[in-house]
Amino acid sequence: MGKKKFNPKDWQNKSSTKSPKSNPANLENLNKIKVQTPDIEEITQRIESTATDIAPTYPDWRDLGFALADALGESGRNYYHRLSRFYPNYTEKETTQQFNKCLKSHGHGITIKTLYHLAKQAGIDISVPIVPKVLRKKNRGSDSGELEDLEDLEETEEKPLPTIPESIYQTLPNFLQWVTAKATTPEDKDLLLLGSLVAISPCLPNIYGIYDERNVYPNLFLFVTAQASAGKGRLTLCRKLVEPIHRSLREQSKAEHEEYQRQQNEYASTKDKTDRERPKEPPLRALFIPANSSATALFQILNDNQGVGLMFETEGDTLAQTFKSEHGNYSDGFRKAFHHEKISYLRRKDREYVELETPRLSALFSGTPKQVSTLIPSAENGLFSRFIFYYMNIIPVWKNVFAGSTDHTLDDYFRNLGDHFFDFYKTLQHQKNILRFTLTATQQDQFNAYFSQAQSQYLYLCGTDYIATVRRLALITFRITMILTTLRIMDNGIIENPITCNDTDFHTALELVKILIQHAAKVFDALPVQTETQKQPNQKQLFLEALPPEFSRQDYLNIAKHLNIMDKTAQKHISKFVQSGLINHFAHGKYKKGK
Asked: Quick one: which of 502, 434, 364, 422 has its CA closest to 203?
């Protein structure tokens, strides 16, 4: 029976009107503002949350570029794109060219205060609280009036982690563009993208690739961590993308079980069983596997489903508590499943020894930072390095909970996407030949070059315990390229063998991992057990990220001063960066990033 073709445009929200502009701000009142990169990130997120074009005229847009170039140098390019994309005729090429001009020409005295002026003029709240380490001095002597510094308090404001660039979303396969179309913030969009990649990863039958001379499949592990009520609950929408597959498997299992019961009754009523074989119990078919299953139950469900399964839990401590139980500690098998390694277990019911040859388990969890440390107290056993981590930024802006369509909910929208993906799943399932995914020779060279540099970078920044994370992120990147390229089949209807990754999807995967590797480093740094080499990874990383593509000795000393890094410490960092190949000392007092 035919289905009505799913058209995502029928489910899109109507564009909201722009925020009304207030009277021009008095620039003199902005002189008291303390300029910090976190402030720029916060203001940018507020602008993005309202989709406001703060620079509708060319002079405003030009000055915005000058402001970002003056304050951040090359690092301001991403902000320029993020703030420019709400202009109706925005193009990535034109914006890139304009920012290049701003970097070369300088702004004739234009500073970052112009950004605040434009934002306030467009009706955006530009107040950003800054919490210093020492808040104030206090009179502790009732008679002497002696002033003493308070102890350093824990810093409550942290530099926001980067989100996936908007330009990435414009190049995704159509299905993933539909998935992320309903996002309201950059973090929301990132969650929907990563969550859908993981949910889809066990549902691409007959697809494999060869990595390090081993067969690998698209399966991914993801842990989204954030404080309570930060918005990570949106991940549940990604579950609906594959629920039709789970439902189909459960219906098949139910029909097979009913037939089994009928045969059992017939067998039991037969007096002469000499020539009758006892009916064999059918497998328990399902896609979703509860995280609180016993170890034997988990492995048995995987075995019943040809090794395929998806663990999808919005409370990360569910798995942590299971690992602590007597019969639920399947951490070893969980780690083996990531690499499709053989898992052996004993069925207690009939004392049958079973070997699960090629487990293809995917997993998605979310929870608070404390739940991460409960599940993964250290990086030593390898569980940490198998996960994609995404650390959500807290956005202190109230969301309009009544915005959007009242006729069709997000649940309706994602259920329809799930039906659309189910049709594609059945197409892959019915392929006669197993399809091999491969990178081109050029892509392989670029892949090796990037991860060689990333390994050197994070060896110095985070120590040897983080090397496993970099190496497994490389495998994760390969798997992401496999998923993206397979989803392209939905766009063009062309199935080839082998399936060759196109350059767009390859670069998309690399850009994703450049963001994810920073998020993993953030979570890694917060693990309870740390070695001496992990004392100050944030300072090194912030320093490296702040350096422009090409710089002088005085440039890096100025940047170090801005980050409160002593000159000698900065010189030590630069020396280490040169030794590890992260920067090139090409002339006296002259440096540039990369080899």
From this structure: 422
